Amino acid sequence: MTLPRLLITGARGFLGSHLLQHLRQQSPPLFDVHVHTGRQQSDLCQPEALDALPAVDMVVHLAGASGPWYFEQHAAQSWQQNLTATLNLLNWAAVNKVKHFVLASTYVYGTPRFLPVNEEHPVQPQHAYACSKYLCEQLLQQFVRDTGMRGTALRIFNVYGSGQGTHMLIPTILRQLTKSAMTLRDALPRRDFLHVDDLSRAFIASLQLPAASVFEAINLASGQSISVAELVDLITELAGVAPEICYLQQSRASEVLDVVGDISKARRLLQWRPRISMQQGLQDLVQAVVS
Fold first, then answer.
1. Is residue 169 part of a domain?
2. Distance (Å, rounded) from C-alpha 158 to C-alpha 22?
3. In this structure, are residues 177 and 211 in contact, taking their beta carbons and an 8 Å threshold?
4. Distance between CA atoms of 118 and 287, rounded to whole angstroms?
5. Most CB atoms within 10 A, among 40, 185, 228, 249?
């Protein structure tokens, strides 16, 4: 039987590399996987460069500028990497009769009006990076209407796991574990963390949705929140250390104080739920630092 052909953009990134690993561990394989790394292959911001991409049935689009702070520092380049590249890839997908386009999205809800946040919550991006993600969702929705492909925007809350960028919260805590003192911005914000392995399983589940001309936005989260202070306590307890903790009491202008994702839709449509508890997920990360 011929396997569905799948293209993954951003395959060298944090999520892309984990997703690729999970796909390669599938036995029997579910897809004929092709990757676009964004470095050695064609630049998605150049429409003519997409001609070199292989013919596929499905696309998982992970490539792009990552994170609000990078976006602020490299605004012009970041808008291109997110919006222009996504538009080019959608145009290419339409011409090449791609059946399903899966988009990684995030940050679109802004400050929650209610918790847990479901997919019906008003979308109110609070910074340029979030705006770029929501505009990509809107582009995908329009292409679904125009072409009849299936479009899925997976709205990721806070992901963590091995290989994550060192500027993120959990790696920032981990790299200070061996010091006598730890410095962090703020103890109070609460986040909903999902392990990257659970996230990878959700992406694979989304690719198995039946063919249909429909756009779906689906939250991917754990359904629970933890404060920065609680997270620090858990990590230091797992590490068996007791550094002095200094909180600078510095909040960003767009800081969200609490967020919890409602994952009822993911449970229903994807037959998916998180398997890895926060304690389980952190254990291996902590051991890699202290051992």
1. no
2. 19
3. no
4. 35
5. 228
Domain membership flag for residue 51: yes
User: For the domain that residue 81 is a member of, what is the CATH number?
Assistant: 3.40.50.720
Average pLDDT, the chain: 95
pLDDT of residue 40: 44
pTM value is 0.96
Q: Which residues in 135-172 are b (16+ Cβ under 10 Å) and which e?
A: bbbebbbebbeebebbbbbbbbbbbbbeebeeebbbbe
Amino acid type, 43:
D
In a domain, 284, yes or no: no
The answer to whether residue 20 sits within a structural domain is: yes
Domain span holding position 100: 5-163+196-223+256-275
Strand 190-191 to 215-220 pairing: unpaired
For 95, counting Cβ atoms within 10 Å of its Cβ (0-12 exposed, 13-18 middle, 19+ buried), the class is exposed
With contact defined as beta carbons under 8 Å apart, do 224 and 192 qualify? yes
Token look-up 């939250």 returns 219
Strand pairing partners for 147? none
**C-alpha dihedral sign at 44, 47, 49, 52:** positive
